[in-house]
């Protein structure tokens, strides 16, 4: 029974970079890495079994979303259904492991769906085919028919976490700016979607320019910048009611680039008075503010460490944009970026160990990551214009916006592994920018 | 038998009503003209009337351009602004909003701050030449409102601008 394995999720270089991430998990499945390139783990997801009349379509759709989630990580490879020898016709029947071994499916996900009175129940099990055992325990989720995609994401999160030992990120949402119209007449409105681009809902109209929404840690509120009053001002919006209000309404100043503290009670943002832009913090409940930087240079794009004790931000005090870390209460800042080019839009990872950023160098834009002391910088992407990284809730994947060049240029969202692999476009109904990835639900 | 593992049922009822009011704005008309920042749009008055905003825009010159990443005023820019000062001195019924802009080669937040620097460079110059500060306001659009859309320096040079928008009436 006992096998040897290491559920390595990333390349060797990266394993060194982030100790503890390339964790070895005692489990019967493994994801192999050869010379820094992942060999995706082959798995099978047959259609889930419909256990009630009319659940057939849902049973198929849910299995497909589970497969899309898993395959989309780049860590798993689905064995095509045409190759399946066994069919799963009953959730409770014994699995014919030999049939799945024969097609080299190392993991098998089986499930069943029933629908009754507007309530959908999804059951699933994960099997280690070569060990001939169940991985973890069977589980079930219940919800409404409209929520079927969430249930599928929940199943996929379980499969991902049982095989990798890390929490998943599929049942999560992203708030972003939906864009339409040509470059010189672009209309922008806030929208929220599932992490995979499904279920887009608009949160504001496009009559006022809106920028850079940011989720609170619980995903219930969104900070953003709106020109509704003519000046860019920080607003806060309740996602549930779609009600918003101005947070920073001081006359004659601009406020933008807001972000919540992990406690959800403090907001950090940039305030422009005259030609000078500094970083301020505001207590949401009392409205009390505090100035955190006071240099004549531009200080913007603040982001808290997950423990709330520090803030990383960008400043051009040295002459070009660079990254700095200071205490959450302000004061002396320590520069952490020293490579060629300019660095901006730093975002602290949810694990606390890394900072993602935008880098401009030699006419190109990159999304990159570095340790919080600035060491071990690694660029993940390169293009005409990549900007504004945001972390998946498990810290394994980064989403960002990519704008294409030229008069017809438009913006789209992409994801990339922090290993630099698996660059993928996220499908959105219109152009999209400024993503902010919310929590695992 | 091992394969017929007992199914441990863990029920998790999902709160699936994520948004109580989805797609509320789906049918809202897009009125781009409602937004400012559309420098170069229609302004009132005749170009032949020296006291009209149209004359200010087209004859005096409503904008100055900046070098990459810079907010310092060139001699040409100062000459244009001297004309703006003269016009504003004469036409005291008008106020002005100075819009700062950046080209697309930069990140969004930084360009907002950079546009503010540019707008304020203009504002400070106008005030230094005698225009009362309470007649002037500024706003930055960063890289959000380009007037030229190619991704070349010829377009970028025109987008790195500060535009003085004349607004009618005395306001606080």
TrEMBL record, chain A:
InterPro entries: 6-blade_b-propeller_TolB-like, Tol-Pal_TolB, TolB_N, WD40
Keywords: Cell cycle, Cell division, Periplasm, Signal
GO biological process: cell division; protein import
Name under which the protein is recorded: Tol-Pal system protein TolB
Gene responsible for this protein: tolB
Source domain of life: Bacteria
UniProt-annotated location(s): Periplasm
Gene3D superfamilies: TolB, C-terminal domain (2.120.10.30), TolB, N-terminal domain (3.40.50.10070)
TrEMBL record, chain B:
Cited SUPFAM superfamilies: OmpA-like
CDD domains cross-referenced by the UniProt entry: OmpA_C-like
Domain OmpA-like: 53-170
Gene Ontology CC: one annotated term: cell outer membrane
Localization terms from the record: Cell outer membrane
Stretch forming the signal peptide: 1-20
Domain of life, source organism: Bacteria
Protein known as: Peptidoglycan-associated lipoprotein
Membrane topology, record value: Lipid-anchor
Family per record: Belongs to the Pal lipoprotein family.
Keyword Ubl conjugation: no
Primary location class: membrane
Any GO BP annotation: cell division
């Amino acid at each position: 029974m006992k096998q040897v394995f290491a559920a390595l999720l990333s390349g060797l270089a990266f394993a060194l970079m982030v100790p503890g991430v390339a964790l070895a998990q005692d489990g019967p499945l493994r994801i192999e890495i050869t010379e820094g390139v992942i060999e995706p783990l082959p798995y099978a997801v047959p259609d889930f079994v419909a256990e009630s009349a009319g659940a057939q379509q849902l049973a198929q759709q849910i299995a497909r979303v589970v497969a899309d989630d898993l395959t989309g990580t780049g860590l798993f490879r689905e064995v095509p259904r045409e190759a399946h020898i066994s069919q799963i016709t009953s959730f409770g029947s014994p699995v014919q492991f030999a049939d799945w071994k024969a097609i080299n499916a190392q993991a098998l996900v089986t499930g069943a769906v029933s629908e009754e009175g507007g309530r959908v129940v999804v059951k699933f099990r994960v099997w280690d085919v070569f060990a001939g055992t169940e991985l973890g325990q069977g589980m079930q989720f219940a919800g409404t028919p409209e929520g079927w995609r969430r249930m599928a994401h929940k199943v996929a999160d379980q499969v991902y976490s049982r095989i990798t030992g890390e929490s998943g990120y599929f049942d999560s949402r992203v708030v972003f700016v939906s864009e339409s119209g040509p470059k010189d007449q672009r209309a922008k409105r806030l929208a929220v979607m599932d992490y995979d681009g499904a279920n887009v809902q608009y949160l504001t109209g496009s009559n006022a320019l809106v920028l850079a929404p940011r989720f609170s840690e619980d995903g219930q509120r969104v900070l953003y910048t709106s020109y509704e009053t003519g000046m860019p001002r920080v607003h806060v919006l309740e996602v549930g009611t779609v009600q918003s209000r101005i947070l920073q309404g001081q006359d004659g100043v601009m406020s933008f680039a807001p972000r919540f503290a992990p406690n959800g009670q403090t907001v950090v943002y940039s305030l422009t008075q005259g030609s000078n832009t500094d970083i301020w913090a505001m207590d949401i409940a009392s409205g009390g503010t505090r100035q955190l930087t006071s240099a004549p240079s531009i200080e913007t794009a603040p982001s808290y460490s997950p423990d709330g004790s520090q803030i990383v931000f960008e400043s051009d005090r040295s002459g070009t944009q660079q990254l700095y870390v200071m205490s959450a209460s302000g004061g002396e800042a320590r520069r952490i970026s020293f490579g060629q080019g300019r660095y901006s839009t730093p975002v602290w990872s949810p694990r606390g160990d890394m900072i993602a950023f935008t880098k401009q160098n030699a006419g190109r834009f990159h999304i990159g990551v570095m340790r919080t002391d600035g060491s071990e910088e690694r660029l993940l992407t390169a293009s005409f214009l990549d900007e504004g990284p945001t972390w998946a809730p498990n810290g394994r994947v980064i989403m960002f916006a990519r704008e294409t060049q030229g008069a017809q240029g438009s913006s789209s969202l992409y994801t990339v592994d922090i290993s630099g692999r698996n660059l993928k476009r996220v499908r959105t109904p219109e152009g999209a920018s400024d993503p902010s990835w919310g929590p695992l639900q | 038998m091992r394969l017929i593992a007992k199914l441990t049922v863990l029920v998790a009822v999902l709160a699936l009503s994520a948004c109580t009011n989805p797609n509320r704005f789906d049918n809202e008309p897009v009125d781009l003209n409602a937004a400012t920042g559309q420098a170069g749009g229609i302004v009132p008055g005749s170009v032949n009337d020296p006291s009209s905003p149209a004359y200010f825009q087209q004859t005096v010159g409503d904008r100055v351009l900046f070098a990459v990443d810079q907010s310092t005023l060139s001699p040409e820019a100062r000459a244009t602004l001297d004309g703006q000062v003269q016009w504003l001195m004469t036409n005291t019924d008008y106020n002005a909003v100075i819009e700062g802009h950046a080209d697309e080669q930069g990140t969004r937040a930084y360009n907002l701050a950079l546009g503010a620097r540019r707008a304020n460079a203009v504002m400070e110059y106008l005030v230094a030449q005698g225009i009362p500060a309470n007649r002037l306001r500024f706003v930055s659009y960063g890289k959000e409102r380009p007037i030229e859309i190619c991704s070349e320096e010829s377009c970028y040079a025109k987008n790195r601008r500060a535009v003085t928008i004349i607004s009618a009436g005395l306001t606080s």
